[in-house]
Design brief:
Strand content: 5-15%
Largest sheet: 7 strands, mixed
Strand order of the largest sheet: 3-2-1-4-5-7-6
Structural class: alpha/beta
Shape: globular
Length: 595
Amino acid sequence: MTCLSSQPLSLEEQKQLAVNITHILSLYGSIVDSYIIEFFTDNLWGKLPYSWQAVLTDLPSPQLASVLLEKGKPEEVCYSAVWPLSLLAFKATAHTLAFSRTPCGRGGTSVDGRPEEFRENRCQSSKLNPLFRKHVKPKKQHEIRQLEKVVKKLSKITKCDQVVDIGSGQGHLSRFLAFGLGLSVTAIEGDGQLVDMAIQFDQELVWVLEKEQARRAKDLGQISLRGPSHMVGWVDPQAPWQEFLLPLQREIDTTGSPRAESSPSLEASATRNSPGPRKIIPPAAPWGGGRDVAEMGKAGGKGPGGWGCVATATEEHGGSPDPSGSRGSGCVPPGHHPLSHPRAGNPLAEGRVLLTGLHACGDLSVALLRHFTRCPQVVAMTSVACCYMKLTTLEEPAPPGLATAPPPPTNLSERGYPLSAWVAGLPGHALSYKAREVACHAVEDYALRLRRESPVLRAHCYRAALETLIRAADPARRRLGVQTINKAHQLPFEEYARLGLQRAGLDPAAPLDQACVDAMLAQQQKVVAFFSLALLLAPLVETLILLDRMIYLQEQGFHCEVIPLFDPRISPRNLVLVAAKAGLDSALSWLAEED
């Protein structure tokens, strides 16, 4: 699947690809399931075939990049020794089965390997309007510029200008879609502090636009003065679609225009700081009547209370329970539903809503897919996932790293992976936490480090040696989450070990067995080679997860495609899943084409 202009995979081909990947992972899954910090304690190198050890031992880092991780033409790859057929087959299979990560029509690169748009300035994309670059890191600039093309085309295809951005963060994508493209955008984010920042950034942009408009004494061309509407809340993948739409419905006035807020209300702030799941808070200071962002701050009063798709909710004042008991899971008051009497001209009632999520973490991307399939008002969606290790699975219903434990699913089909019934019935489909974590690593970035023989490469060897020292001092302490040591690769190991032992709660002054330490550090290149083997399998794990989502969508009767949209050198999670409802199948084939 090089790009969507080529022939996409049929459903049967997708299923066969999933079968092939699970077979490869059943053979070599021990590599991707291994923790690199246990390289010495678990003798990971000794678990590789001896013939692999013979050719990979002391193989220079640049050759690891060129002959293993990078997919070059066979005639252009130069091997310093004769590789065993099993290793060659392993490499070829891993490259062949993974989804292509190369975007269609990718431009050139600068000297440091970054995309061409950053050739003149490493921090400023030359292809993004300067108005939308403030507060935005280069990676996000690139992603916004690419994803907005797809959303814009979907909006044109569906004749829909209502967009809901799930997991909107600081609102960078929502801001561009609203101000830059003139779309009506509702941004939903679970972190109230990020929403506050998004609102602040919106206000700053409004101030600049008004100043520019006054200076020019004319309009701003294609720049809109209507900003996004921001909402605080958690999106529950198990909530009925009606409850998902409830807060969005209340965001739409009688003309179909979104409301927005100038600043968070006191009630909103109190709710954001309260523990547990939070309710979705509608705007506190609506612009009303479809007024644009230039009217910000002129309208007062409190907006209506809104309850969204959360498992439970606290009351607006002090977090006390609702005395009427009418607000439970999903929080829809009985006897009243905003979709019962749709208003004229309301896009939500007419079935024209687009969902988008840029690097929605873990199960949040799953929630987006589930609401797309269940909600008749949602006509299309784009999903760029990340943090696969935070997906809930049968084996790990509450994976580590989550801010709060998810509510128990009502049935096994509600887990984050697998989604599709077909993959769930596939032998060997289970993916360990570590496999899903490795799938989030930046393969291209690591290959670049190998080519440059970056000093950062010694970090894994340092941590593996530290793990040996920790277990020697206390065997019960395994895989501790040792706080990151800043610029560890620049430190002598003795200093690194002292800081690491201290963070592990052990005596930092304990004497080191210098001969043992030196023996471990001498194997740095073996550690690098083993981690490279794991990274070679990482795209297969991501491909299997995305195949599961594609098959799930097709089981529900919807067409979908995966597009390699971003440059993987700057945005490792660069595959976007695009899905559309009936009648839009053929239109997906040209979404990734360059304008």
